[in-house]
Amino acid sequence: ILTETGNIYNLFIHAFVLGRNMKKIISMKNVSKDYKVLLREPGVKRIFENLFARKYQIYKAVNNVTLDIFEGEIVGWLGTNGAGKSTTIKMMTGIVKPTKGYIYVNDIDPHHDRKKIAKEIGVVFGQRTQLWWSLPIIETFKILKELYEITDDDYYTNIDIFSKMVRREILYEIPVRQLSLGQRMLGDIFAAFLHNPKIVFLDEPTIGLDLLMKEKIYELVNNLNKIKNTTVILTTHDMNDVDALCNRIVVIDKGKVIYDDSKEQMKKEFGKTRELVIRYEKPLNYIEEKDLEQLFQDVFVYDINIFQDNVKIVFDENGNTIYDLLTKMGNIGKIKDIIVQEISTERIIKSIYQRK
Asked: Other C-beta atoms within 10 Å of 20: how many?
């Protein structure tokens, strides 16, 4: 009962944050994806045996995921390499078929109706551009207009939105090959929104970009999300992307969802988490991290790292006081300086993994 009450509460929180109708745009129920991996054993004899009697191991890339995503949300789809987030995205876009369970994207089974789902989604995969290399961006937009059968009114309205964010020559005159990486990425992102899809998947959209260009991309995605109420699924390793864009965080590990809540709730839950930096007068060459872990075994500390003459400790203020930590740390050397700071989103994600 408590679990179901919590789920209902989260649905209302999502709707309140978005200020929009609670319409499901993606629904996943008990979704799993298994891969058969050939077991290759060393030795010449084993090689010949494998030719006639192959042995396989089942690898669960995604394991029994149940999840609903609502219209207008910008969801941070986070996880380490190999966690299963890319496989889940491929199932949502219809590229990969689930081994078990079902997925519906805007009431469409994406794998069984690939042509229909293509008009409902837009996709940007890192630095793999969909723009025509030797033509200005506008020429690609014209091709997409015909491909997606975009009406004249929608097309010119969208072009006007994009033209207000970039210089005229970038849109109409300069070939894509002569644009910077950031300018191409802006073009790719807008190309994904051009046909007014219900959902846009952004995979590492700011990788390799400078801070100013990242700000432009944040502005573009946020504006398009507000104007068109487009749902955005963002996969990234850059926590600045999460802070600037996402209103909901989903964390995946080993094919399972280990965290799913609004960004505000995440910060509230981990709001008492702090980072304490202690600098000593002499280098701590004689101390190992395992010794510090032993020292803090009776208090709630998430993470401890030693860097030459200083120690960084991520801790929970609900279970500790700074005085308690400093008392322990004072026993290993003479303290020169201390800094207490708010935890970053990156540290929060790491704390979620450690709590799991």
From this structure: 14
pTM of the model: 0.75
User: What are the structure tokens assigned to 166, written together?
Assistant: 């970039």
Token pair listed for 337: 């300086």
Q: Which two tokens stand for residue 284?
A: 């701590």
Q: How far apart are CA 186 and CA 216, in angstroms?
A: 8
- State the helix-helix crossing angle for 152-163 and 211-228, rounded to 10 degrees: 150
Strands (E), the chain: 24-38, 56-70, 74-78, 100-105, 121-125, 199-203, 231-235, 248-253, 256-262, 273-280, 301-307, 310-316, 335-342
pLDDT in tens, 92-118: 999 999 999 999 999 999 999 988 999
Q: Which of 198, 205, 206 is nearest to 228 (CA)?
A: 198
pLDDT in tens, 230-244: 999 999 888 889 989
Compute CA 285 distance to the chain's CA centroid, rounded to the nearest angstrom.
37
Q: Determine the Cα–Cα distance for residues 259 and 236; give it in Å rounded to an integer.
A: 16
Q: Which residues contact 243 (CB under 8 A, 6 or more apart)?
A: 345
* Residue 94 near residue 111 (C-beta atoms within 8 A): yes
